[in-house]
Structures are given as C-alpha cells and as structure tokens.
Design brief:
mainly alpha, two-stranded antiparallel sheet, about 65% helix, about 0% strand
Amino acid sequence: MKYNMNVNAKRAYRTRSLINLLHMGHCAPAVMQTVLDITHTEQEWLVKLMAGMPGGIGNTGFECGGITSPLVILGLRHGLTEMRDGLPLIFDQGHAYCRRFFDTNAASFCKDIQNPGHIPVRCIHAVRHSPELLAETLASDNRYAIPADQRDAYSHLYAHLKQNDFHCAHAVFQHLSPTLPVNQELLDATSAFLGGTLFKGMTCSAYAAGVMAIGMKIGEIENSYLRVMRMLTLMVSNGDAFNDSVNKFNRALNTGHRLSKWFRTEFGSTQCQAITQCDFSSVAGVEKYIASDGITKCRRIAKMVAEQVQNILE
C-alpha cells in the first residue's frame, strides 16, 4: 500500500528543507538536517557524515545527496538485522526510496540534475522533496520494491558476502577504527552502502565510506545565509564557488573529490559495476562475481581506501 502525505505536511517539509539549504548551501547536509529537525533529533555527527557527499558523493556527479542522506536515515532505522525474503529490509526500503526520488526528479545522479552556470533550480527541487519522499517511504509497504528476479540475485550475493563477513563500507570503517569512533550506530547508518549502493552497481561503497569518513573527521557545518548567497553568486558567475573558504562544507567536499581522483587512477572508475564488470541485478552477474573471487579484490579496495583516507587525514 502506498502512503501519500497530506498537503500541509508536505508544505512544512519543503519549507524546512529550503530554509536549511539556504543557510547550509549543499544538498546532502541540508536534507540530513531537515530530517533531524522534523524528528526533533540532535545528531551533529550525521550532518558531518554527509559533509563530503554533495555533488554526487565527493563532487563526482553520481548519487545525489537527496538519495544518500535518506539512505543513511533508513540504515539507522533498519540496519542489517531486519530480514525479509533473504535480504535485509534496508534493501526494500532503499530501493523504494530511490524509485520515488527518480520518479520525482527524472534522475538519480547529480550530474543529470544540476545545471552548471545557473541557479540550481532542479537541485533545490530535489532537496525540498527528499524529506517528504523519505516519510512516504517509511509509511508505505515496500515489499514489492524489488522485482523477483533481482531479489533472487541480490539474495544470492548478500548470502555470499555475509558468509565471508564482508561489507564494502563497513570494511573501510573497521580499518579506520583507530582514527574514527566505529560503533553500531555508524555501521547501521551506512548499511545501504553495499555493492555500489544497495547492489545497484553505482558508486563504489568503499569509496563512499572513505568520503563519509573524511566528513566525520574534518567536516564543519555552514550556517550563514549571506555566505550561501555569495556561494550561489559565484556559482552563477562561474567563480570558485567550491573554494574551501567559501562554505564550511567545501573542505570535506574537496578532500573527498581528491580521494576520487586517486581512486580513479587506481581502479579506473568510481563506479562499482565498471570496477567489478558484474551486474548484480542478475544471478549470472552474481555468479560471475563469485567465480572470479571478486570479494578478494573488493577487500583490497576497501583496505587501500582506508589507507589513503588515513594518509589524507594525517
């Protein structure tokens, strides 16, 4: 059953989202802050976790911050312990949310939503609507969000990863545990970042975890309408809107982007499917990954990301 929020609630969510965007300046932190405001929750670490995620995860142009922040909230809600038909419930909820987001914005990737050199109207639209889409997802029955054939493939892959005690994002955090406080809350929050985000083969979840780790460690929170207006002015005039000094989130964002350049040099792409050469939505693709011992390569990637993040932070 699909839940539709009433008009007054939607208006309140959209207003709060716009206010946060106008004094923070970036998508992922603004969406996160809005959800925290709506639920009367004070968790500054979650906003910092998202500090490097704008611009499509480290400004690479892929998953919009209007997707990644809600996935973190869904992860906190469900973790990996709630199971349904061979998969953690976060997969049903996450896929349902991603479908809602795509239907509302006609895209999932930042590079397909933004309009460089102009006021980012479509970005504003994505941020304004994300919290209400999350609320609708949480209130709906999403048991059929994943088609049966994809579910079979995902379940097969998840069983393989669990048997080998591997989770892309969690492996990075575990390697960084002397530097970052790794607790169950962090692991739950990042549970959707597996196999290129919910096994979709998008941004490598080890790289995404590296960007989140950078945000947690060096992220600062912008809170100035005037500074954000200046950033937007620079954006429209093709100025250096992402200079570290322009917005407090920019340092983490730029550091995450530097990580992406290193990552592409090492592995050819930041995209999971391009790296693994496997389509996880089919059983054949999963069997190819297992037969090629893909998990060993992924362990190596996670370890190398953690080492690079450690070097950056030092």
